[in-house]
Every structure is written in C-alpha cells, then in structure tokens.
Records
---
Amino acid sequence: MSNTQYPLQLDSDTVRDLGTLALDRAVARVAGFETAPASRHDPEEQLARLRARLAEEPSEGPGDLGQLLDLFDQAADQGVDTAGPGYLAYIPAGGLAVSAIAEMLAQLTNRFTGVTDLAPALVAMEQGVLRWLCQQFGLPTGSGGLLTTGGSMATLSALVAARHQRLGEPFADGTLYVTGHTHHSVAKAARIAGLPARSVRVVPTDDRLAMDPAAARRMIAEDRARGLRPFLITGTAGTTNTGTVDPLSEIARLAAAEELWFHVDAAYGGGFVLTERGRTMLAGCAEADSIAFDPHKSLFLPYGTGALLVRDPAVLHAAHSGEASYLQDLADHHGLPDYGDLGPELTRDFRGLRVWLPLRLHGVRAFRRELDEKLDLARLVHRELSADPGLEVPWEPELSVVVFRLRDAGDTRNQRLLREINQGRKVFLSSTRIDGRFFLRLCVLSHRTHERHVRVALDEIRSAIARVGSDG
Ligand SMILES: *Cc1c(COP(=O)(O)O)cnc(C)c1O
C-alpha cells in the first residue's frame, strides 16, 4: 500500500482493507495480553528516538498504513500494560473487546447525540442504558443522567448542579463534606465549580477508614453556627485507597435531616451493585441525589466511559442548559433529554452503544459472575497474605482492593518491595499512603484477571519479600 494516494472519502474496498489491516493488529495484541510483560520501559536513549519519531510533523504526501501502525505498536508497548491480566494497580478494567467494536461502529456511523432531534432513537438507546443503571442503584422512576468521559466529569456536573440548586449566587459560603479517603476529583470539581478551597470540609474516618457520620453531623452544625452554608455531602461506594464503602444509608439520613445534597462516588465500586454482596453493601445508593459511576472500571469498558445518575434530571438541566438561536430548529422528543443541556459538552461522541452492546451481547449474568469472581479473588489475596506473619494486612477487603506492607520495616523497604515485585514484569501493583504510612496496593478488577493470575501475583510478592527481606 506504499505511497497510495488516499482521497479523504475512501471507497468501500479501501475502508475494508485498511480496517482489516488495523483489526488484525488489534486481534494480535489482544491475543498477546496473556503473555505480554506487565510493564515495559525501554532504555532512555531508545525511548528518546521513538518519541522523536512520534513527534515528527505529518508529511505533505500520503503515508503507509503498515508503517504507521508499526509506530503505534511500538508506542503502545511502552509503559504499563493496563489491559493485561497482571495489571493489579490503581483501578483496572481491561477493556471489553465488544465495547471497542461498538465504538468503531459508533464512530463510523458518526451520528450527533448532543441533541435528541438529530438522532432520537440513538438517544433513546443511550437513555435506556441510563435508565437501567438508575434501576440497578435503586433510583426512582424519573431519575436519569448522562454518560460522560469518566467519573471526574460526572462528579463535576453533579457538583455544579448541586451548587446551582442549593446555593444560588453568590456561593462562596457553601461547604461540602468529604473524608481523607474521598477521591481527589471531588475537591477538584469544587475548585473548578468556583468554590474556595476552604469549602471542602474533611470529616474524620473510623477504624474501617469509613466516614464517621456523627463527626460529620457535628462539623455541619459548627459550620452553620459560623454562618456557612453546608450544601453537599459525599459518600464513597468503594474508596480508591482500600475499596471501603462509607456508611451510605447513615449518610443519606444525615443528608436528609440536614437538607444536604447526597452525592455518592461509586466510580470504582458501582458495578458491584450487580452482585448480591455488592447490592447489600451499596443499598444506600438508592437515597442519593447523584451517583458518579465509571463503566470503564467495574463494567470492564475501555477507558472513556463514565456515568452521572441523578434523582432529578431537571436540576442538571437547570445548571447546564443554555439558550442559543442557532439551535432553534430543534424539536422536543417524547421526554428524551438533550444531553447537551445536562452537562458541559454539546458535541460529544455517541457513548450509548459501547455500554448497550456488551450488556446485551454478553448478558448481565456474565458481568455479575465476573464481578463476584473479583470479590472472591480479593478475599483470596487477603487470606493468603494474612498467613504471612511478616506482613501487615489490616483491612479485610469490602470490594476488591487489598493493601499490605512489611510489618517490621519502614517505608523505604516497602517501596523497595513494590519495585522488586513490579520489576519481575509479570504483574504490576501500585501503592498508597494511609495515615502517612506507605502501603502496597493490589486491586483485582480486570475481566482478564482470574485465579491463576492472582496466584502468580502472590508468588511474585512472596519471592520479592524473600529478596528484600522482612527485617530492619
Ligand atoms: C477513578 C475514580 C474517580 C475518577 O474517575 P475518572 O473516571 O478517573 O475521572 C473518582 N472516584 C473514585 C472512587 C475513583 O475510583
């Protein structure tokens, strides 16, 4: 195909040829996930050469797809293989192949779903996904929301809506309540929403690292006495640090009594609501005013799909809609929303299909089983690591995160342990700090991670411990 001139409007055969070439590469990569190194960092000199090639200006004339895809492959090989079974760091998801196929279809179809009038049935499709998600969390009829690029964007839209509805203007005296384990995206959203840093109030946590609602109640009362206006409280359905679920029902009661907006951050843990154990733990979500949930975490989708679910979509609309004369031709469509009026984006990619298709093709049971397996695997990891007297493994996993550290060693030796584990390149773990102390952190969530991979991780951890030594 070298030096072929490609008109921007390709004929069908060329689309098929180029598509097949790219798809063959993708299929080979996916087939290689099982055996590929969990991470790869080429020597700096090599990497510098690759970076230089990637940053070259595009040529005036046509390129060669094979060569261009070679370059992509080299670039994609560098760093951490976040799609592979050995990826146990941060929050893995893997990335369902069916969702990627849906995405290709959606992009080639390229319909506009920022307003309903231009694609009423596709918007209905996306709305169906949102309705189903709302039902899973127990939100009532009339609830809704929108698919976002991730939890951070969902949180931002929720916070802006809550601020708009509860505080009006000016709002610098508003306060919201988080814990030291709440994801930083909440404080970031508050900052972007124009709230001063002091408005984010950090409620103490208990032994389980969950919010202490009694302490929250006291802080709210104190803040009111100081003339501030408490307006929102966050509960996390699975913290990023330890997968801890805040006492959501208690926080919901507190929010109701204090007339605060109740936001649940279920970005990581939300998918577990499909399992029986998860449904019990996350029951309090049913009382939420808004829920941020990431299908690109616990529904195993490729990166780029979050969801904001709200009890009352009119509140989202009030905060995000805009009047524009160039949109005057658009008609109303049977109660379907214009997504452009529910969040910051007008033009957006059609996100519905990449959630809709995998749910229907695989069936919900496939997701439920996979998530149940992850809960079991985290318990297995906890059991096995707890059996080592040299390790401190303080918290039984509520969802699928286990944190641990060498018992009689300082942070430096624990940091060395993490490096030793990851340098084997069979698995990749991350770390965090809890009460100022360094902990290694293992999160099982990818649909590609099964018991055999977790056993490999345990072997890697044990042999790294033997190398690092557990005393001193
Ligand atoms: C990942 C995560 C977020 C942020 O979501 P993004 O999709 O990364 O923007 C927020 N809260 C929790 C608990 C998370 O795990």
---
Amino acid sequence: MFQELLTKLSAAQVQMVAVSKTNPPDRILALYELGQRAFGENRVQEMLDKYEALPKDIEWHQIGHLQTNKVRFIAPFVHLIHAVDSLRLLQEIDRQAAKNDRIIDCLLQFYIAAEETKFGFVMEEATDMLQSEAFKSITHVRICGVMGMASFTEDEEKVKLEFRSLKAIFDNLKRQYFADQTAFKEISMGMSGDWEMAVSEGSTMVRIGSLIFGSRV
Ligand SMILES: *Cc1c(COP(=O)(O)O)cnc(C)c1O
C-alpha cells in the first residue's frame, strides 16, 4: 500500500506525511528504510520519545493541536508545525525558535468542517492577526501555508466543498499577504479516508496514518 500510494502522490507532486502516532518506532523504521522521512505526530511526549529513539534525519511534523506550554520541547528539532491556531501560539513558537537560533516553519490551521471539535482560525481572525503589529514583529517563524481537516462523513460532496474552501483561503492569503513569499506554498489537507479528494482539490501535502500503518489500537 505504501509504495503504491507514494507513486500516486509523487505523480501528483504531493508530499506524504506518514502519520505515525500510536505506532512503535520499529514500524516507523520500516518506512524509513523505504525512504520515507516525513512523519507526523499529534502528541508532544510521543514525538519526543520517537525523536530520541530514531534517526536524526527524520522530519518531524507536529500535526495535532499544540499547547503553548509544550512548544519548548519540540522547538529544537520540529520540521513543520501544521496546527497553528492562535497568535499566542505563534508568539511562543517565535520565542522558542529564537532561543534555539532557528526559524520554525508553520502552517495556519483553518476551521473548515462543520464539527464542533475541530480547531482552527476562521478567515476574519486570521486576517486580523496577519495585519497586527504583534504578527509583524515575529522574526523566527516562517508561515508556509495552511492546514485543515474536513468533516468525518461519507458525504463526499460536503468534503469536497470543505477542501475547496481551504484552497480558496490559501489563494486569498497568498494574494493578499504572501505574494512575494515563495515559502508560502503548502496546503496540508487529506487523510486516509479523503486524500484522493484532497489531491484533486489542490492539496500539496497529505497526512496519512491508518492507510499505511493499519488501523490504530
Ligand atoms: C491522525 C491524524 C491524521 C491521520 O489520520 P488517518 O485517518 O489515520 O490517515 C491526519 N491528520 C491529523 C491532524 C491527525 O490527527
């Protein structure tokens, strides 16, 4: 499944983040040996343990909701933080990145699903932030694009419209705020159940867990 998926995704020039949460290090290593380097985790402690145990050229993606008080633990090595959903979090990432003398790449998470439980900005909150002085004074974060999660539903039309709305948000932000920033190019959308739809709607990065690792216990 892994190779087949990778072939399809690379034909579409879409990057795969292998979502390894709950899977032990040896299963990560098996994919590592097939060439996979980008792995996604949603819990800080679990990412730390795996970072310690596994090869240092793995690119660790923080894909889940991140608490401000945990940023400092992953700041030394995290490759991309997908789920930035507040200015306060961004400011803490900036602070910790500066301490570690690095620039941390981040995506802005948008709320696109009709579900109470999903985190993320709505457009107005994001534009308020992007126009603020506080945002302009951030120096050690690079905003590389957007991330979103579609509703968990069988209704494909609904999922399609949600992905389409994230693509529109991306295009809008790119035009208004990031036109001259080549790094602003990622749309992280699509998981095991909806990655094909996400790719056809413009995803540049899919986060795939159960499809390649098997279902989580
Ligand atoms: C778990 C998770 C995924 C992967 O889910 P699968 O359905 O197993 O592919 C993707 N994104 C986020 C934010 C997740 O928490």
